Hints:
Immunoglobulin-like, 11-stranded mixed beta sheet
Amino acid sequence: MKLLFLIPIGILLLPGCTGKNTPISQDSNEIKALDIRNVTLRGGFWEPLVRRNIDVTIPYAFRMCEETGRIENFSVAAGNSTKKHEGERYNDTDVFKIIEGAAGSLRIKPDPDLERYTDSLITLIGQAQEEDGYLFTARSADPDHPSPGAGSDRWTDIWVSHELYNAGHLYEAAIAYYLATGKDALLNIARKNADLVCEVFGWGKKEAAPGHQEIEIGLIKLYQLTGDKKYLEQARFFLDVRGKQQEYKEHPEGTRFAIYNNKPYLQQHAPILEQPEAIGHAVRATYMYTAMTDLARYLPGCPAYHEKSEELWKDVTGKKLYITGGVGARHEGEAFGEAYALPNKEAYNETCAAIGNVLWNQSLFLSTGNSKYMDVLERTLYNGLISGISEDGMHFFYPNPLASDGTYQRSPWFGVACCPGNVCRFMARVPDLIYATTNAGVYVNLFVASEAKIGLGGTTVKLEQQTEYPWSGSVSILVSPEKKADFTIKVRIPSWLGTAPFEGDLYHYMDQTAYQPEISLNGKPVKYTVEKGYACIKRSWQKNDRLEVSLPMPVRKVLANAKVAADSGRIAFERGPIVYCLEEVDNGKISKLELPADVPSEYQYNETLLGGTGTLKVEQNDKILTAIPYFLWANRSPGEMAVWIKVNSR
């Protein structure tokens, strides 16, 4: 099979295209994430977490898929088993997501046993696929009696059935596995399915939007890999038909699917370019916004999708984003709430929504080169996302509240297990987030102990980043081109150095000091310009040049906008990108705890606590309270927890 990689396309004369340029055109200035095959983690904060995903979480998740019938379902659909389909209609995606995680794992650490096991799953998936490319075990296992919600026939209830949601994750898994191994068996399965989807759906054909916006991301990635424009155009159709599809009906199965009759929940209430705010199911929304942003990058002359994505981003970061980077405040519908409605104990903040938020912000960064998107990405990554998995790698959060009475704990698995599989695939992607490149230079987006090899300035450049971030603000970057070369290194200046955690007025620091990084080159202060939140150092680089970056890391107290009623009269603690919380196991009952606004606090690293972590020591009269990183809560005995602490009036 001949594959074309990232083939640029000319301006497509499609409805709504204006002929204007997209934020980043398909030329030498295009920003690209650095492939994880060129990035190696070297200790520090992230390597142990990524290794845990490889060594523990992925094998555990595969085992749970075996025990719960998710893998057996493919055997049933293939006619190799006499059992009945087990579980929900969307359970195929759990297998696909973990395969994607396995692919990322294989790109980081070759493992013949894991590869053979995954190959066997791919063979089984191929056997379950129907002749024309249809792949949906919930129907194929017993077409006369499909799983509840699957619809009476193919594609009849796609806002409920998740047929296309399953397909999107199939495409992403197939692409990841091809890039990891060079094997195209799963990619052939995916393309056969995608070709069927393109035959069935479109203007003048079946004019309907999927209930979950995952397939748009998968289709755009298929286009990126193959250069086949029909996949890009199909993704655009699914976005453009939303809110104006001809076929939409009440679901016949009653209250179980009543939520799907709520068009705002599905982002079906208006065409996407006419939606004024982030609304509805938060995972679906952030996936849709990611697809919109990606689409604009590959459709020169059609900036409206990007402009709308930025407008919705401002709505989220200005009114609907938790201090942890979590999104989707409401349990009902796993949805965005009203503006400034950000309850703590009742917060939903699904782990999958945090992943969607990271994907969306990465896409916005790649489209613009603006650090404000990486600021939100980093905040979500270090707080509301990795909180979704336990220290042992085998227990998970679905919601991620910011307060607890002690009754909410992590679970070893879920009947609806989207979050564990999503964590598996996401953690394998972490090295993709650290660096990005253009022909002119490299972005250092995240401060992660790592090595990277990059083609720049007509030579190969090796970057070695040494840091204990987020516990330390000291970052050392050794720059070693094979030969002397001219290029620019852009180092992100984190928003948490300023007067607010991120752009906008949703939160601000009690101390309104704006701190500045100190940057030196080969032991001497270096001049730099600031562009879109990056310190830009342009020069002729030579072997063993060393950049030293020092980021001040005071403990900071956070205040919320007065419109956020849940946080009125409360403060939260941060240091660097880390949001802290207080747990009962360290401090006794905390639900009625009150602190003075000027309460002293200091940072300490505890080598023995929770595998080694940064803590805050907070003085309360004659008692010292201990605050731990929010992402580590609920790893010990059950008890109360709070991020936002009451301030007394004294």
